[in-house]
Specification:
Helix content: 25-40%
Order of helices and strands: EEHEHEHEHEHEHEE
Strand order of the largest sheet: 4-3-5-6-7-9
Radius of gyration: 18 Å
Structural class: alpha/beta
Number of strands: 9
Strand content: 15-25%
């Protein structure tokens, strides 16, 4: 059966398309660190319905590695960085952010590993009366359409979702035709800076 993998950590010679998750997350973390943030928190995708619950950790592991790289480049460690792993829904991003903001050392910036989690974080911060970015900066990952018109506009890592899908389809058509090739393509990402990030108060 011809097949193509997208964003998988199990490609091992199969046709495969992915994005530079590690580089993208590195850019987002570096952006916050260069603004002067040192009390950061991370919203990641963890146990719950969906791919993560089935051990599908490739992109997430790479994104976390990119954040660690940025901290190391700045001479810092992530030892004291809170990490919340939740299902990738807006409601879970909201709930996790409420918990993060109730601790003794509230973060000045939240790195969400998906835009949907970031939307929930902004919802929670708004309800708590915390300004974004005046009190807490927020970043996402994906650059979904909503991120541009969210208020404030979300600073996020853009991945070429349409290009990724089109390329995977091209690879699959080639495989169906019986062409003997096992392409592996990694697409670049870019940091889109909008209004949700600023220097810490």
């Amino acid at each position: 059966m011809p097949f193509v993998l997208i964003d998988s950590d199990r490609h091992k010679g199969a046709p495969h398309v992915e994005v530079d998750d590690r580089g993208g997350a590195h850019e987002a973390a570096r952006h916050l660190l260069e603004l002067g943030h040192r009390r950061l928190a991370v919203l990641s995708i963890g146990p719950g319905p969906g791919p993560a619950a089935r051990g599908y950790q490739g992109p997430l592991a790479r994104r976390l590695a990119g954040i660690r790289d940025a901290f190391a480049d700045a001479g810092l460690t992530m030892d004291d960085v809170p990490l919340a792993e939740v299902p990738a829904t807006r409601a879970e991003g909201y709930r996790a952010t409420k918990e993060l903001m109730s601790g003794p050392a509230t973060p000045t910036a939240i790195l969400a590993l998906s835009d949907v989690l970031a939307y929930g974080a902004v919802d929670a911060l708004r309800e708590l009366g915390a300004g974004v970015p005046g009190d807490v900066s927020v970043t996402g990952f994906d650059d979904l359409a909503e991120s541009a018109w969210l208020r404030p506009g979300l600073t996020t890592v853009r991945q070429p979702i349409v290009t990724k899908g089109r390329m995977a389809a091209d690879f699959l058509i080639s495989a169906i035709r019986g062409e003997d090739q096992h392409p592996h393509q990694t697409l670049g990402t870019s940091l889109i800076i909008r209004e949700s990030t600023a220097k810490p108060a």
